């Protein structure tokens, strides 16, 4: 993708316009403020805000070797962690809908896996942060691999999509706004 330069009355407006044109989020972009807006004297000689936005080029394609290398690093880390914790777990790498996962499965009881998930997935989120930190330290790149325990993340994502679609249908029928539960990014 290319780099886009946009101008607007404020930096926020210029950034929003550029992101919309590129079709990416702020987290997926490198944003450079070329010029802050200037009001000028009595509105004369005012200048708009100018920003330059380009996609982060560190995101490899789904079939790139970066995913495989990161998945291997994450897999080795998790194997060591499971051994240290004394948990009997099977680990496998897979890709679902363009996301590379390291899946953790219990060959026997899922009580151990419940410990890894934690209440509302908080322990799993912490485990993800550990893996992310390790992968970034080993590869020097942003971690793109997700850790999932017994398909918890995939099931959660599916439920959220169903709730969002249901809410959208209700809003469409009633014309009244609906508030969803607070969620983490």
Descriptive terms for the model:
single chain; 185 residues; alpha+beta; Defensin A-like; GMP Synthetase, Chain A, domain 3; three-stranded antiparallel beta sheet; three-stranded mixed beta sheet; extended
CATH-assigned homologous superfamily of the largest domain = K homology (KH) domain
What count of helical segments does DSSP give?
5
Helical amount? 40-55%
Provide the CATH top-level class of the largest domain.
Answer: Alpha Beta
CATH structural architecture of the largest domain: 2-Layer Sandwich
Low-pLDDT stretches: 58-64
Mean pLDDT: 85
Indicate the overall shape: extended
CATH fold category name of the largest domain = GMP Synthetase, Chain A, domain 3
For the largest sheet, list the strands in their spatial order: 1-3-2
Give the tally of β-strands: 6
- Rg over CA atoms, rounded to whole Å, is 22 Å
Q: Which structural class fits the helix and strand makeup?
A: alpha+beta
Order of helices and strands: EHEEHEEHHEH
What's a concise summary of this model?
With 185 residues, the chain is α+β, with helices and mostly antiparallel strands. The chain contains five helices and six strands, in the order E-H-E-E-H-E-E-H-H-E-H.
Q: Describe it for me?
A:
This protein has helices spanning 11-22, 65-85, 111-117, 122-139, 152-174; strands at residues 4-8, 29-35, 49-55, 90-96, 99-105, 145-149. By secondary structure, it is of the alpha+beta class. The strands form two sheets. The protein has a three-stranded antiparallel β-sheet, with helices on one face. The two termini are 25 Å apart.
């Amino acid at each position: 993708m290319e780099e886009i330069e946009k101008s607007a009355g404020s930096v926020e407006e210029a950034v929003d316009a550029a992101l919309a044109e590129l079709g990416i989020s702020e987290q997926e972009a490198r944003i450079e403020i070329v010029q802050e807006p200037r009001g000028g004297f009595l509105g004369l000689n005012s200048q708009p805000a100018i920003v330059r936005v380009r996609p982060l080029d560190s995101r490899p394609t789904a079939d790139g070797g970066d995913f495989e290398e990161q998945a291997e690093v994450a897999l080795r880390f998790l194997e060591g962690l499971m051994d240290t914790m004394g948990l009997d777990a099977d680990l496998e790498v897979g890709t679902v809908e363009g996301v590379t996962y390291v899946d953790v499965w219990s060959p026997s009881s899922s009580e151990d896996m419940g410990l890894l998930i934690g209440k509302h997935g908080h322990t799993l989120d912490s485990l993800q942060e550990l893996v992310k930190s390790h992968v970034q330290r080993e590869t020097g790149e942003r971690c793109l691999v997700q850790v999932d325990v017994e398909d918890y993340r995939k099931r959660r994502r599916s439920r959220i999509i169903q709730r969002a679609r249901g809410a959208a249908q209700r809003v469409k029928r009633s014309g009244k706004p609906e508030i969803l539960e607070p969620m983490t990014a």
